[in-house]
Design a protein that fits this description.
Blueprint lengths: L1 E3 L21 E2 L3 E2 L8 H11 L7 H4 L6 E4 L8 E2 L6 E2 L23 H13 L1 E2 L5 E7 L4 H19 L4 E7 L8 H13 L3 H10 L1 H4 L6 H10 L4 H8 L2 H16 L4 E2 L1 E4 L2 E4 L4 H19 L2
Parallel strand pairs: 1-6, 8-9
Antiparallel strand pairs: 1-12, 2-3, 4-5, 4-10, 7-9, 8-11, 11-12
Helix pairs in contact: 3-5, 3-10, 5-6, 5-9, 5-10
């Protein structure tokens, strides 16, 4: 397990670059500025950066350190590595800001139509799960990463039962398709098209279940469409969505969020004010969540 915490000094000097256009543009990652839309994953990461706690204050989480594996981001490293490229542990905080993203496009560029704005909003909201007032947990993952599948298969159902359905946390999914996984980007985009139809989590479950099947195919389209039918998506809508520049931009912005947060491996998790990297056993993942919940509660009662 790897845990990252940052001092407030680490985010001093982050300049809010704002938006370079008046409406219907991507600003700070994946947020469209259409009226009434609530910012989600991009602002979650930005808010996380302004609240993260120093490594010296993570003793409760560090007590469950173990050697954990994750899929490494380095395209030149075909082998899977630990979350930090070592045997796990606390990663020292970097001195530079983790997030300073503006993804605005030029006037008339793809992604600047009302239809694209609606697609972005629906896809973004579709990958959220849980009560609006619960503590956020953001999962940064890759559908072809074997360690993401390991965590998903061992922990996701129990996490939903114990924390999401219980109203304790709200879950969001951030894509980090690694270059060493040839179908990861297509899977990420397909899952966001499922999110447009409010079927993200069902589609994600099947992607992880069918992970091995994707290893032996050259073109993922037939398999992705088969999964769409399995989870009862409208196939013509799904097919059109997969060709959308808006969905491509959404996934690319997810990658930028992860990159600027110095996340180099999957799975990684933003849990309240903590960044946890690696496929933790569920009992240790619970400790991380319970610690973050306790921190959040103590701040509310001050």
């Amino acid at each position: 397990m790897s845990v990252v915490g940052l001092n407030q000094e680490d985010v001093h000097g982050v300049k809010d670059t704002g938006c370079t256009r008046a409406a219907r543009i991507l600003c700070h990652g994946i947020r469209y500025l259409s009226k009434g839309y609530t910012p989600t994953v991009s602002n979650l990461i930005r808010n996380f950066m302004s609240r993260v706690r120093s490594v010296s204050r993570l003793s409760t989480l560090l007590c469950c350190l173990a050697t954990l594996t994750a899929c490494g981001r380095d395209a030149g490293n075909a082998a899977n590595t630990t979350a930090s490229g070592t045997t796990g542990g606390a990663i020292p905080a970097a001195g530079s800001p983790l997030l300073q993203t503006t993804a605005a496009t030029r006037p008339g560029a793809s992604g600047d139509t009302l239809a694209d704005s609606i697609t972005i909003q629906r896809a973004d909201r579709g990958r959220l799960m849980g009560r609006d007032d619960a503590m956020w947990v953001v999962m940064i993952s890759d559908f072809q990463c074997p360690y993401c599948k390991q965590w998903h298969d061992s922990s996701m159902a129990r996490l939903k039962r114990d924390y999401i359905d219980a109203g304790k946390i709200r879950m969001a999914y951030l894509h980090l398709p690694l270059s060493i996984h040839r179908h990861a980007r297509a899977q990420a985009e397909a899952s966001m098209c499922a999110a447009v139809q409010q079927k993200f989590w069902e589609y994600a479950d099947v992607l992880f279940r069918e992970q091995r099947a994707f290893q032996s195919i050259d073109n993922a389209t037939t398999k992705l469409e088969a999964i769409a039918r399995e989870v009862s998506l409208d196939l013509p809508t799904f097919t059109r969505c997969r060709k959308s520049d808006a969905i491509r931009l959404l996934v690319e912005n997810d990658e930028r969020q992860a990159s600027q947060a110095r996340v180099q491996s999957t799975p990684s998790f933003l849990i309240g004010e903590f960044l946890v990297q690696g496929a933790l056993p569920y009992k240790d993942f619970r400790k991380a969540i319970d610690t973050a919940l306790a921190v959040a509660k103590s701040k509310r009662t001050r």
